[in-house]
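SAMPLE LOG
Freezer: B-3
Tube label: C17
Construct: single chain, 164 aa
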Amino acid sequence: MTMSETELLALLRELDDPERMERPLRYDRAAAGVAFSGLVSRLEADFGVLCESERDTQNSSEYGRIHVPADATICGTRIVVCVSKFGSLAEVCADNPGAFLGTDEACEEGALDPADLATVERALAELGYVSVPEELLESDYEGPSTLGYFAARPTWWTRFFGSM
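STRUCTURE (predicted):
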């Protein structure tokens, strides 16, 4: 099920606990690792290639990243999937977070093929992740946490994927 922007913002606000900046109260590191490994395996099977991954990011609300190599994609641009420690939130980017203003722009510029994006989005949905568009994550943060120490212009990305 795809969530609307309104529903996604409500979820981000619900997950935002100013007392828990790096990870939620009931964070299960082992379960996050198993789920992440499952996502890596799924993307490797879907794209037919080994995917580099970084996991268990320290001092960050991001759990890890998966890199689908450029030579496995239709447009020849790597795909990066970022996974948060909060609520199984995930973000899909062409090349790297911030390289484009989101997947729509990446598709329009020919850097990301809609079929590759659909493959990643389907894997995320089927494995229980909530994909949040980069455009929404880059919008101004409007929650109770104090993020001014971490960024001059706090965004939802800063809150759920940034370094603490």
